[in-house]
Structures are given as C-alpha cells and as structure tokens.
Amino acid sequence: MEGDAENRKDQILERLNKRNKDRQNYLDVKSELRSKETVQNEGVDYFYQTFSQKTIDIEQRLKDVQCGDGQPTDLARNFADITVEIQDLQRYLTASTMFLPDFKIKSCQNILNTLTAVSDETRQRLLPKKKFGFSGKKTAAKPKVAPNKDIVDAKLSKVSEKLGSNFTWTIANRTNEHIVLDSAKVNGQDITISNLTHCLVELQGHPGSVQVSRASKCTLLCGPIARSFFAENLEDCTLSIACQQLRLHSSRSIRIYMHVTCRAIIEDCKSIEIGEYNYDYSELEADYLASGLNKAQNNYTDVADFNWLSPDVPSPNWSLLKDYPDPNWNALRRDFIANNHNSELKQDVKDISII
Fold first, then answer.
1. Are residues 78 and 205 in the same domain?
2. Cβ-count burial of 334 within 10 angstroms (0-12 exposed, 13-18 middle, 19+ buried)?
3. How far apart are CA 150 and CA 165, in angstroms?
4. Per the count of CB atoms within 10 A, which of 4, 131, 240, 266 is most buried?
5. 243 sits in which H/E element
6. Containing domain of residue 187, as a range?
7. Residues 220 and 193 grouped into a single domain
C-alpha cells in the first residue's frame, strides 16, 4: 500500500513538473513572438519615417525646379538628379517589402508613381523636345509654355496628404545648440532627430526608441533606451548609447560608446570607433531599471558589418577604442556652452560694428 501511494505521489509530481515545463515553454515562445513583433513594428516605423523624409526632399526639389529660371543644361542636370533619387527610393521600398504590410507597400508605391508622373510632366514642359523636319521655311518661334504650377502643386499636395502631414520630428533643423530633453519628455517615448549641425543633444531618461537622420559634428548623450537605436547619414559625430538593438547606416567618422544587449549592426559605414557606454547622471540606475535593459550584458565588442562578409578577416570599417581616455562629458558640456557663448558675443560685436 505504501509503495502504491509513493508511486501515485511520484506520478502526480511528474505530471505537475511536466505541466510547469509546458507552461514555461509556452510563455517563452509567447515572449519571443512578442519581441519579434516589437522589432518588426519598429522596422516599419523607421522605414516610413525615412521614406517620408526622402519624399519630402524630392517634393522640394521639384518645386525649386519649376519656380527657378535655370538654363537648359542646369535643368537637365537637376531632372537627372531627381530621377536618380526617385529610383533610389524605389529600390529602398523594394528592399523593405519583406516586412511591410501590403497596404503600406501599395500606399508608398502610389506616392512613387505620383512623384515620377510629376517629374516627367514638369520635365516635358520646361525641356520640350526639339522637333525635326526637312522644311526650309522659317517659322515664327512659338512662345515657351510656362509650366502649370498649380497642377504640379496640386499633385505634390496629394503626395503630402498620403504621407500624413501630422508627422513631426522631435528635434529637427538645429545648428550650434545645446538641446536637453528631460525625463518628462523622454520616458517611454519614440524620439526622432533630423538635420542637426554642431549640436550637443542630451536625452535624460529612458526613451522607448531613438532614430536619427542626418547629423554632422554633433554629440548625442542618451539614457538607456528600452528597445532600439537607428541612425543614418551621420558624419563626425560622437554617441553615447545604451539599447537592445543598434543599427548604423551610411555614416562615417563616428565614435560610439555603447551598451547593447544584442549584436550591433553597421552598413555602408567607415571609420567607426567603438567603446563602452560611460554616460553618467544622477538617475541613470533608475532609468536602467525602468528601461528593462540588462546592465550585466553588454555586447559592444560584437559588431556585424553587412558590407564585410569575410569571417576570418576583421572588418576595416570599425575598430575598438584602445588606449584612449574616456571622455569627460561634464567638461565637454562646459566647453561647448562656453564656445557657443563666445561665438554669440563675437556675432553681436560684428552686428554692432556693421550698424
């Protein structure tokens, strides 16, 4: 009897253990699927913001061309550049279709079709083809038909409507500024940054994600990012970033002090120097906890270069910072503010002397 009771007890324990394992496996799979879904959504958001910005740039070029009085050779060159930009945007859309929903692909393709049509129509009006004939008679020159600006503007406005005019960058079009966003504006938010020159940007808090497009001679200091950091078209910049995922595209001469729990990825980049994350401020520990980042796991030495496929030879496009002192961010901040203040004083004196 005691043996039977013991066997039943063992069987019950075994079933409980199996049920617990099955439950844990289910939770692990569910967590992994949720993580993949989050990454995919961020990829879609990043694509659409990039696509929108490039579309706006092409729109502006088309408006500049139709409003200007350039020579035929200049116009031809401008239209050639616009055609290349539209083709590049088409390739970007094609390469991104694997993770985009069908409705978004269709919407973006319609935008590209409209841009192409507007470009062709404007080109035909501003650069009409010469007619060839054998007649020796001289005919009066026909007046040049001015482009119908209203029609072009109407078509371009439809493009803007399709893009959604409600998108705004968190920080955009700034030069020589010290920009600080505190935790009230940063925590859990998706921060987007565009078109900065010689700026010091501090994001004090724990953002949900950070995306940067086009920056030159800038320093970005950021608290722990809960998910991802994406950046493109950076030049001569310094970054201090902690995140789950880091991707850097089309950038050069970049120094990154990073904490990344996944493998960092670079593409079309050169002269990238990498060190360990060392930004520090009073709420850093609390922000680490709130972001959910594993502070003990840092893969900053493991970088995948999509332009370097040789597994046996290190990529020449990035290197680890060695024998280089850690930056003093307080001193950098102080010097930046002082230099900007001196520049403003010099500008004031210059303005006074002109008056």
1. no
2. exposed
3. 20
4. 266
5. strand 228-243
6. 171-348
7. yes
Looking at residue 37, which CATH number applies to its domain? Answer: 1.20.120
**pLDDT tens digits for range 214-254:** 999 999 999 999 988 989 999 999 999 999 889 999 999 99
Q: Which residues contact 336 (CB under 8 A, 6 or more apart)?
A: 178, 200, 219
* 348: three-class secondary structure by DSSP: helix
Is-contact 246 227, C-beta < 8 A? no
Examine the domain organization and report whether 159 and 185 are in the same domain. no
Which tokens go with 288? 């680490």
Single-letter residue type at 352: I
| Rounded Cα–Cα distance for residues 169 and 191 (Å) | 8
> Do residue 210 and residue 108 come from a single domain?
no
User: Quick one: which H or E segment has residue 42?
Assistant: helix 2-67
> Are 103 and 121 in a shared domain?
yes
pTM of the complete model: 0.56
